[in-house]
Design brief:
The protein is mainly α. It contains seven helices and no strands. Helix 3 runs antiparallel to helix 6. The structure holds fe (ii) ion (FE2) (2 copies). One fe (ii) ion (FE2) binds next to helix 2, helix 3 and helix 6.
């Protein structure tokens, strides 16, 4: 079939499809194997399980937001190379989403009930910052990924040593988030103003504190 330019309607439908797939359906098969697949399960007591599930729910909510952010940015990107880069990152984030969900369900719990809210908020922020132009859009992504890496680093430090399955997933996610951020910088990301970074941290804190419980 010949290639054709995507119309705004095509993009809208693709976005709606991604939103539904992210928040409403159980995660499908990830394109890449779950890093925890070959790691034997640990013996966790009920309290450790519930804490582990809460932390993974936070990471899963972050991945829901990452999907929306990248789709929001891609929807308004002006440069087709930037759009392709965002699509590639979004594909890796989709694996992260599936790995987190698999671990939450292994622990007998469910992802955040507020996933539609995390998706809608992040999509709006992604599209709004994308409208300022690609260098700001990339700047927003670079800063988001930096903050996500900090969060995942602190998660890794607080992990009980027996939870090696979670460590395998979070370590690979952290490495890939770092790469997404570096790719955005290489592609020409602008450095965001300090108050914007602080606002992003404050917003992320609301999401992480809420998703741990709900
Ligand atoms: Fe991710
Ligand atoms: Fe990422």
């Amino acid at each position: 079939m010949p290639n054709r330019q995507l119309t705004p309607l095509d993009r809208l439908l693709a976005g709606a499809n991604n939103a539904l797939r992210t928040v409403a359906a159980p995660a499908g098969h990830p394109a890449r194997a779950n890093p925890a697949e070959s790691v034997p399960p640990a013996e966790l007591d009920a309290k450790q399980k519930s804490h582990a599930a809460g932390l993974m729910r936070v990471n899963h909510a972050g991945e829901v937001a990452a999907q929306a952010l990248y789709m929001g940015h891609a929807a308004v990107a002006r440069d087709s190379a930037v759009e392709a880069q965002m699509q590639h990152a979004a594909d890796e984030e989709l694996d992260h989403l599936a790995w987190c969900e698999q671990r939450i369900r292994e622990l007998g719990e469910k992802p955040s009930l507020l996933s539609p809210l995390w998706y809608a908020g992040a999509f709006a922020i992604g599209a709004a910052s994308g409208m300022l132009g690609d260098k700001w859009s990339l700047g927003f992504i670079a800063e988001t990924e930096r903050q996500v890496c900090d969060h995942l680093d602190s998660h890794l430090q607080g992990l009980p040593s027996e939870d090696e399955r979670r460590r395998a997933i979070v370590t690979q996610m952290r490495d890939e988030e770092r790469q997404h951020g570096e790719d955005a910088v290489t592609a020409g990301a602008a450095e965001l103003p300090g108050p914007v970074k602080q606002l992003m941290r404050a917003t992320a804190k609301v999401m992480t504190r809420t998703a741990y419980w709900v």
